[in-house]
């Protein structure tokens, strides 16, 4: 009989399925903005139709290992005028006394757009803007506040995330990927406007380079960007981390500016139980943590995930120690 594998950490909550954890520390409390996975009869396909999520729930805790609170529905698809289905991986930002929830969802034409919803509380409820962010598309938004107070928005995901359908600048309802020896499809970055509701500039491609300074190629599935962008800063260096998708790693690349370019450095998290791998990185009470998900609770059902966290270490040379979600 096959040996059951041991996991390195436990699900943070087990009464609902959660995934794609975006973690932030505000007012000494840790807040996690996950996707809320649900059971569905929708058959599994390459577009990810079985990821049929319909609302967001925020988690929070005041200490690691303490009680994890789940704060109820923070935003429901029914309350977003333009959104029809598939509320995928969100992120949140705080500016002044306001909290902003950034989220992807499919519109009435089945095109992923990015919405923003605002609240006076980090746990919501959030009120959605009537339209998606002008000029936004694809999935997995994340917002990074730099030390100078500017906010940068990153976005993108290929395959089900549709980024490959925007390579002409317009949406084309057919997948178009570069040849294996061409640069891989890049995620996008744009500075946010002062009100946090729109782009302050035209989104630009984030350049991801191999160690020899050449762009990571589309055929380099071990290293090329797939989805799940996240950014953190450690000692003056910007770390851009992401999922490699069909090779199931969380990889990272470093640079000197929030715009990049970023140079590939290695793997932060090896494949977990389940197809998707999606993470965030945050410092809480002087310790860095990796937030991630696997499918322990559902016994491996890829669209029914649970969020977890574990300590993350930057080595003296700035590299990150590779983590594994299994204990054995
Ligand atoms: O949760 C739905 C999608 O699965 C996310 O947007 C991707 O990053 C992957 O985790």
UniProtKB/TrEMBL annotation:
One GO molecular-function annotation for this sequence?
A: hydrolase activity
Domain of life from the UniProt record: Bacteria
Q: Which CDD domains match?
A: GH43_CoXyl43_like
**One protein family per Pfam:** Glyco_hydro_43
Q: Which InterPro entries match?
A: Glyco_hydro_43, Glyco_hydro_beta-prop_sf, Glycosyl_Hydrlase_43_Enz
Q: Could you confirm whether the keyword Hydrolase appears in this record?
A: yes
Instruction: Mark the transmembrane ranges.
Output: none
Keywords of this protein's UniProt record, alphabetized?
Carbohydrate metabolism, Glycosidase, Hydrolase, Polysaccharide degradation, Xylan degradation
User: Signal peptide: which range, if any?
Assistant: none
Would you identify the family this protein belongs to, as annotated?
A: Belongs to the glycosyl hydrolase 43 family.
**Name by which UniProt lists this protein:** Glycoside hydrolase family 43 protein
Source organism = Microbulbifer halophilus
Phylogenetic classification of the source organism: Bacteria, Pseudomonadati, Pseudomonadota, Gammaproteobacteria, Cellvibrionales
